[in-house]
Amino acid sequence: AQSVAQPEDQVNVAEGNPLTVKCTYSVSGNPYLFWYVQYPNRGLQFLLKYITGDNLVKGSYGFEAEFNKSQTSFHLKKPSALVSDSALYFCAVRDRGGGNKLTFGTGTQLKVEL
Amino acid sequence: GAGVSQSPSNKVTEKGKDVELRCDPISGHTALYWYRQRLGQGLEFLIYFQGNSAPDKSGLPSDRFSAERTGESVSTLTIQRTQQEDSAVYLCASSAQGQVGQPQHFGDGTRLSIL
């Protein structure tokens, strides 16, 4: 069965500093990987995905993520955080082998402070 | 429409009542998903539709939960004889098919509270 782990419930960072939100996954074979962001009382918004190709994926709002097959990780990064980036971030995986459902991590609350 | 629309946005009901939650996907999206998000937790998959068929119902937690989709468009999630543990935000998502790794686009959810 596929699974996703987000080891940090919360990440705090100062505005202007780089941020990293961690994600590791477990699937059989090669995965499709996604990052979503959720603002209060809203649904999830798609940020970026890894399907194949370059290990560094660029997405919306200046976010990027690095796929590392050997470490089965897909960490979300941004070079310079903004207060408006404060939100709940979810990593998700879809198994290529079958089914279309996404398996989500438990989410990481990002807080960016002045 | 421009995005996935869910109604109602909030629903408060008494334990034991039946509820229906509606999802209007993005026009042309053939795949539709329902998820449940309990307070402070991640999303749990409930059911997946491809067209009007549901090839994966593996996440439905009990036979009190059912869902249907008609016209390859609107979907309804029905919870019968609601229990307090059904309180959660129910999220619907849709995606296009035909291309590898299409992202799912989410509605804002229905916040269900069982008294």
Question: What is the element layout, followed by pairings?
Answer:
The complex is a heterodimer of chains A (114) and B (115).
Chain A: E1 3-5, E2 10-14, E3 19-21, E4 24-26, E5 31-38, E6 44-50, E7 56-58, E8 64-68, E9 73-78, E10 87-95, E11 103-104, E12 108-113
Parallel strand pairs in A: 2-12
Antiparallel strand pairs in A: 1-4, 3-9, 5-6, 5-10, 7-8, 8-9, 10-11, 10-12
Chain B: E1 5-7, E2 10-13, E3 19-24, E4 31-37, E5 43-50, E6 53-56, E7 65-69, E8 75-79, E9 88-95, E10 105-106, E11 110-114
Parallel strand pairs in B: 2-11
Antiparallel strand pairs in B: 1-3, 3-8, 4-5, 4-9, 5-6, 7-8, 9-10, 9-11
Spans of chain B of 5+ residues with little confidence (pLDDT < 50)?
none
Structural class of chain A: mainly beta
Average pLDDT of chain A works out at 92
Main sheet specs of chain A: 6 strands, mixed
Number of helices of chain B: 0
Largest sheet of chain B: 7 strands, mixed
Sequence of secondary-structure elements of chain B: EEEEEEEEEEE
Number of helices of chain A: 0
- The radius of gyration computed from the alpha-carbon positions of chain B, rounded to a whole number of angstroms, is 13 Å
Shape descriptor of chain B: globular
Note the beta-strand portion of chain A: over 45%
